[in-house]
Amino acid sequence: MFSLRNRYALGVMALVLLAAGVLWFRMQTGNAVAALAPPPDQAVAVDVVQVNSRSITDWREYSGRLEAVDQVRIRPLVSGTITQVHFEDGSLVQEGDVLFTIDPRPYQAAVDRAQADLAAAKARMAYTGADLARARRLLDKNAIAKRDFEQKRNASRVAAAEKQAAETALATAELDLEHTQIVAPVSGRVSRAEVTEGNIVSAGTGAQPLTTLVSIDKMYASFEVDEQSFLSFVNPARIGGAEQIAVNMGLGNERGFPRRGKVASIDNRLDASSGTIRLRAVFDNADGMLLPGLYARIQLVGGAPRPAVLIKESAIGTDQSKRFVVVVDGQNRTSYREVQLGAVQNGLRVVEAGLTPGERIVVNGLQRIRPGDVVTPHMLLADGEEHLADAGDAGDADEGALEHNKKSAS
């Protein structure tokens, strides 16, 4: 009986202790959660800027390739043996510099033979001319038959024609001799010599090129422009009689678009399959950095300057296919605003629609806020430098608050 009563008492005590433990654990857990949870009315500190309007000039960016203004495949105009190569591979040459020499001896012999033939033709013409003059005097005295006179006159004419043919043959021989010296038709940079000394080359359009020469003082950049850009930028200037359309260019390793040029030509039709039209701009190559075939980034500038709103990329949020910003109203309460974005101008994004100058937007801390939240805004200048005041009171900003803004902006 005593044992049964003791067991009952021990069971009751165990239940009491267990209930007390559960109650204590719940109290401790609730205190911890309450300690971790922020006060419901606590405002989140965010960096904001006031949206301003700036004057911009619209432009579009394209990809293109550089092309030489003059590109020549050097081919021989006469056949023969290459006796000398006068340049180093990849060197600069001037117009008229000798590049290759073909053995001139056969062509010099042809010139000598043509000169001899010309001398003989001149002698025959002189003889037949004098004979014709004598025959004419005799004809006046009826001392020569009419047929004999006609024969002498015909012989004089044949001799004159033979002299002219000999002169033409000599000019051709001299031209062939001149072509044994293969010269640069333009100034520029040569490629490697495809044929070395001792090789026999043949003349003609199907002949193997001896080398390639490209001009380097100016360079073309060819690129494709979409239909909308053509209608907005290129066509108005073309129809309006503008002397040039401004184009900027940057190489793959250059920052921005440091090179200035102009559109040199516009294709005569739009490619219906791609919806683009081909343009070619020309650029000076004073520093010699431009080479045919290099990749180029092209900036096509068009239109008159216009006011536009520009914001930082960090102020733009993404919601599926939409872009939005967080606007802070006069009560420091946030709201989402869908915006329509344009091109990038000097690291800032153009806002075509959705914002007006004077509104405040959040630039840092988008992930910490939701629509309708009350925030503590710290004003920054639109160019990224800190304003000396926050949204509350400009006169109460101290060094600590300024340092906080700098850290937040960075």
UniProtKB/TrEMBL annotation:
Cell compartments where the protein resides: Cell envelope
GO biological process: response to antibiotic
Any Pfam family: HH_MFP_RND
Multidrug resistance protein MdtA-like C-terminal permuted SH3 domain sequence ranges: 308-368
Domain Multidrug resistance protein MdtA-like alpha-helical hairpin: 112-180
Region of interest called Disordered, as start-end residue ranges on this chain: 390-410
MF GO annotations: transmembrane transporter activity
Record's GO cellular component terms: cell envelope; plasma membrane
Start and end residues of each Multidrug resistance protein MdtA-like barrel-sandwich hybrid domain: 71-211
Multidrug resistance protein MdtA-like beta-barrel domain sequence ranges: 219-300
Gene3D superfamilies hit by this protein: 2.40.30.170, 2.40.420.20, 2.40.50.100, Helix hairpin bin
Biased composition (Basic and acidic residues): 401-410
Organism superkingdom: Bacteria
PANTHER family linked: ACRA/E-RELATED COMPONENT OF DRUG EFFLUX TRANSPORTER, CATION EFFLUX PUMP
Family: Belongs to the membrane fusion protein (MFP) (TC 8.A.1) family.
Protein name: Multidrug efflux system membrane fusion protein
